[in-house]
Amino acid sequence: MRLIKFTVTACVLISSRMVGADNRPLVERLVLTMEGTANDARGKPPGRAEGVSFSAGRQGQALLVSAENKTLLRWPVAESFDPNRGAVDFWFCPKWPGNDGKPHCLLSDDSAYFRLVKDDGGNLVFVFYRSDWKPSVVLVKPVSDWKSGEWHHLRAEWDVEGKAQLIIDEKVVAEKPMDMKGGNAQVGGNLCIGSSHAGEMLADGLIDELRLFGPPAVSAQQAVLEGKPSLTFSLDGTAQSAEGLKPEKAEGLQWVEGRTGQSARLSEAGKSLLTIPRTERINPRAGVIELWLRPTWDGDEKKSRVIVADSSSYFQLVKTDWRAIAFVYYNSKWESAVSVWAPIDKWKAGEWHFVRLVWDVDDEAV
Description:
Elements: E1 6-15, E2 27-32, E3 48-50, E4 53-56, E5 61-65, E6 72-76, E7 85-94, E8 104-109, E9 114-118, E10 123-129, E11 135-142, E12 152-159, E13 163-168, E14 171-177, E15 190-193, E16 205-214, H1 220-226, E17 231-233, E18 249-251, E19 254-257, E20 262-266, E21 273-275, E22 286-295, E23 305-309, E24 315-319, E25 324-330, E26 336-343, E27 353-360
Antiparallel strand pairs: 1-17, 1-20, 1-22, 2-16, 3-6, 4-5, 5-16, 6-15, 7-12, 7-16, 8-9, 8-15, 9-10, 10-11, 12-13, 13-14, 18-21, 19-20, 22-27, 23-24, 24-25, 25-26
C-alpha cells in the first residue's frame, strides 16, 4: 500500500464503550454465586482456578481463599469490566482481625490498575490507577475493629466523569471525585478474586455472591445516537485530541485551510505520519470512526493508498487501485472478518468527502 496523501479534518471516534454523560443504570455483567462452583451464573468456567474450595457461606456455600490451598482464581473480564464506569460488590468474611498488621488483597485486576486491599495498618483501601500509573482515586476506611468470622458487604463504585465510592455494610464510608488528568482509565483482562495480581497476597477469608456491574452493552449504531465521542481530533492547528490525548507520532504535518478552521495535510513528499497511541477509548469490538477527507488525487487513479489503519494492520481503510474505497477488518487468525467497499471513481482532487465507518463484531460493518 502507498502512503496516505490527502487533507483530513475533524476526525471523530465514537466507541461503544461509552464515556462521559452516561446515566443509564448499571447492569450485572458478571455474577459468581460461589455455590460450590467458580463458574458464573450462566455456567461459564473461570480462566484459571487453582486451590479452589468452598465452605459455609452467608447462604449456602462461599469461596474459601487460603494460603494453605494456594488459592488462585482468575476471571476473564475484558468484555464485562468497564474501567470508565462500573461497580463490584460481594460478601466477605475475614479469617483475621482488622488489626492483625498484615496486608490482604481482596480483589485486583491482573495488571494491578484496580485494587481493593486491607493494608497492614488496618485500613480497607480502594485504589484505581490511570494509564500513567498515577492513582485516579484512593479511598481509605479504617477497619481495625473487624472481627475474624464476621461477614461484611463490600461495594466499590467508579465513574471517571464523576466520583468513586467505597461502601461497607450499605453505608458510604468514603467518596472522592476521580482525577483523570494525565491518563486514561485502564484495567487488565482478568479479575483476580481473593488475591493480588501476582497471587502473592491473599484475602485469607470467605468470598460470596460477587457481582460486577457496568453500563449495558450497546451496538456501535446506538453509541452514535446515545454517546458522545470517545476521541475527537479537530486537527485545527494541533494533532492533540480535544480530550488531551497526544499523538504517539506527528511528523511532516502541514496545517492548511480546511472546511472550518484548519486541517492537517499529509503527503508522501512531507513523509507525513500521524499515529494515535493505543487507548481504552478505542474499542476493537464495536465503534465508529468518521472524518472529512479531501484527496489530492482523483478517485479513478490506479494506485492504492492507506487512509486509516492500526499499527498491526488488522484494521484498514484504504483507497484501492481499482477505483474504490474499502474497509477491511482482520481477526487474530488474519482471516478477513469483514470487507466492504464503495466506488469512488467520480471523486475529484480537491473535493471534500465525509467518510464514516461503523463496526460491531456482534452485528455488522458499514
